[in-house]
Structure formats: structure tokens, C-alpha cells
Design a protein that fits this description.
The protein is an all-alpha fold and 151 residues long. It folds into 2 domains: 1-95, Serine Threonine Protein Phosphatase 5, Tetratricopeptide repeat, CATH 1.25.40; 99-151, no CATH class. Helix content is 79%, strand content 0%. It is built from 8 helices and no strands. Mean pLDDT is 90; it is low at 7-11.
């Protein structure tokens, strides 16, 4: 019985590693929603490796790293925060007008310490960029900055 369980686990792991990016992303989103950020980050990383030009995969990988950073010691959090920033910036370069991606990067810049790339100046620039693309999104971004600056 134990050998069968091990064999099943190996087959499942192989199937997941060979899975398409969409399947990996679905699994990762479920893990993210369940609060299993480490597993979500691992699956999103696999999906990004299979589909590196997909901005939403980079965005969700950044979100996973960010949430995981909230649960670990400060040294690991620092590394994860830098990874999150890199993911959000990559997503933004792939989809420069996507309001959700711009919002995530803006929130990162506003909340993160300077040592890991946080910058209120960059956050305000993104809010202005969002306003130029869509005035409602820009207003929402500026309101968020006003409510969350310094918190």
C-alpha cells in the first residue's frame, strides 16, 4: 500500500511538472486563495518558466512572493520582496497599460521599504500614468495612495 501511495505521488508530481501553464496557474491560484503562498509561488514559477511572456503569471508570482514575505523572517522577506518587485516590473513591461498590474506595482512601491525598491515617488508616477490611461483608475489609485501612504 505504501509503495502504491509513493508511486501515485510521483506520478502526480510528474504530471504537474509537465502540465500546461494554464493548469499550473489554476493550481497555483487555488493554493494562493488557500493561503499556501509557498506552494503557489512554486507553481507560478513553473508556469512562468513555461510561458515567460505572460504578464498575469508574473503578476501572480509577484503577489505570491509578496504574501509569502509577510510570513517569514526579515532576511527571507527581504529576498522575497525583491523577487516580488522584479515580477511586478516584468509584468508591467509585458503589459504596460494593464490597470491591475500597474496597481500591484504601485502598491508595492508605496508599501515596500526603500532597501527593496519601495518609492513613493515611483508610486505617484504610476498613479499619474494610470490616470492618463483611465481617469477612474487614476482616481482610485490616488485615493489608495492617500489612504495608505505611510501605513
Amino acid at each position: 500500500m505504501r509503495i502504491m501511495l509513493i508511486a501515485f505521488a510521483l506520478v502526480a508530481a510528474y504530471a504537474l511538472s509537465a502540465a500546461e501553464p494554464d493548469t499550473l496557474a489554476e493550481t497555483a491560484r487555488a493554493q494562493y486563495e488557500a493561503g499556501n503562498y509557498a506552494a503557489a509561488a512554486a507553481r507560478f514559477q513553473q508556469a512562468v518558466e513555461k510561458s515567460p511572456r505572460n504578464p498575469q503569471l508574473h503578476q501572480w508570482l509577484g503577489r505570491s512572493y509578496g504574501r509569502l514575505a509577510e510570513t517569514v523572517d526579515w532576511l527571507e522577506a527581504w529576498t522575497l520582496a525583491i523577487k516580488a518587485r522584479t515580477c511586478f516590473e516584468q509584468a508591467t513591461s509585458l503589459a504596460p497599460n494593464d490597470p491591475d498590474i500597474l496597481s500591484d506595482l504601485m502598491k508595492f512601491y508605496a508599501k515596500a521599504p526603500t532597501l527593496v525598491g519601495g518609492s513613493m515617488s515611483k508610486a505617484r508616477q504610476l498613479a499619474s500614468r494610470m490616470a492618463a490611461l483611465d481617469p477612474r483608475q487614476g482616481l482610485k489609485a490616488r485615493n489608495w495612495l492617500a489612504a495608505n501612504a505611510g501605513s
